[in-house]
Design goal:
This protein has a single domain, classed as Electron Transport, Fmn-binding Protein, Chain A (Pnp Oxidase, Chain A, Roll). Strands 1, 2, 3, 4, 5, 6, 7 and 8 form an eight-stranded antiparallel β-sheet that branches. It is 25% helix and 35% strand. The chain is α+β, with helices and mostly antiparallel strands and 177 residues long.
């Protein structure tokens, strides 16, 4: 007999023995989620003082790219190369629509890419610099210089999707390389 998870309540689903999602499917879901959003909270820390910054991002597969102006984020990463990124799809829910609540937490390895690095142009393409330049009223023929791109390669991704319960999967999945 097949269980019809769609007809079950949140409370009923939470008490079931659910399964881990296959790795390939999990990666597809994470990539799709990253593409569906473009604002993250980038967290860094220096001297035990955390800093969490809402900032625009773009992704290439599971890798996240953020363009940062010189400032606290860059100084923090130079002093402490640990980074965490939080992304969620909804700031509020009244639990009527609980099946659409999704989010990820990425712990990763940051690389600071400046405009003297050959990887800079490719990273700016992923970041979609032309759109940014158009909106900012800047030259659209040449990528902006003087910026630092933070490339975050994931070491661990925690994916939370309450809708997975209705598919028979655990609502919390972990991806690691």
């Amino acid at each position: 007999m097949t269980t019809n998870y769609n007809k079950m309540t949140f409370a009923e689903l939470r008490n079931l023995k659910l399964q881990k999602m296959p790795r390939e499917e999990l990666e597809k879901r994470i990539v799709a989620f990253l593409r569906s959003c473009n604002i993250c909270v980038l967290a860094t820390c220096k001297d035990n003082v955390p800093r969490a910054t809402p900032i625009e991002y773009y992704s290439d597969g599971l890798t996240v790219y953020v363009v940062a102006d010189p400032g606290t984020k860059i100084a923090n990463l130079k002093a402490n190369p640990r980074i965490s990124i939080g992304i969620y799809n909804t700031p509020y829910t009244n639990w009527v629509d609980w099946k659409i609540v999704r989010g990820i937490q990425i712990s990763g390895k940051p690389t600071l890419i400046t405009d003297d690095n050959p990887e800079y142009i490719e990273a700016m393409k992923i970041y979609n610099w032309r759109l940014y330049s158009m909106i900012a009223g800047r030259d659209m023929d040449t990528p902006p210089t003087g910026r630092t791109i933070i490339k975050v390669e994931p070491l661990r991704i925690e994916y939370r999707d309450l809708g997975l319960l209705s598919e028979g999967y655990l609502r919390f999945q972990v991806w690691e390389p």
